[in-house]
Amino acid sequence: MRLTGMGAEYSNMIHENGWYVYIVRCNDGTLYTGVTTNPTRRISEHNSSRGGSRYTRTRRPVELVYVETGASRSVVCKRECQIKKLSLAAKNNLIKKTEKGEQ
User: Fold this and answer.
1) 8: domain CATH number?
2) Cα separation of 4 and 2, whole Å?
3) Which candidate, 46, 82, 85, places its Cα nearest to that of 65?
4) Do residues 69 and 19 make contact, with C-beta atoms less than 8 angstroms apart?
5) What is the pLDDT of residues 54-73, one digit of tens each?
6) How far apart are CA 1 and CA 58, in angstroms?
7) Residue 38: which residues within 8 A CB-CB, separation 6 or more?
């Protein structure tokens, strides 16, 4: 998997046929992890009245804080499971490393 940074630079890494695992920070400070083929669209869905997950519907707005890309849905789903098993501190550490440009 290749790690991509946040902000404007991550959008340059999004490819039409890629799969992504992402983490969003919800309005209440909690983190939500998911997979998608289009992070920009998915974050918009999380923040709109239509779409989004049941979890994030009551915690809007959400902010994208982490994205990884993988070769297939299988690869990113496995990574999603790994991330979900991490402690909150470990997830925040992963996010901070991304913000600093570390991989």
Assistant:
1) 3.40.1440
2) 6
3) 46
4) yes
5) 999 999 999 999 999 999 99
6) 31
7) 14, 20
- Counting the structural domains of the chain, the total is 1
CB atoms within 10 A of CB 68: 23
Beta bridge partners of 31: 25
Of 9 and 98, the structure prediction assigns the larger pLDDT to 98
The length of the chain is 103
Give the global pTM: 0.83
Q: Is the pLDDT of residue 31 over 50?
A: yes
- List of residues 6+ apart from 12 with CB closer than 8 A: none
CA distance 23 to 89: 14
Using the Cα atoms of residue 48, residue 50, residue 11 and residue 21 in order, give the sign of their dihedral.
positive
User: Are 77 and 93 within 8 A, CB to CB?
Assistant: no
Residue 67: which domain range? 2-99
Sheet with 2-4, strands from edge to edge, namely 2-4, 63-70, 19-25, 31-36
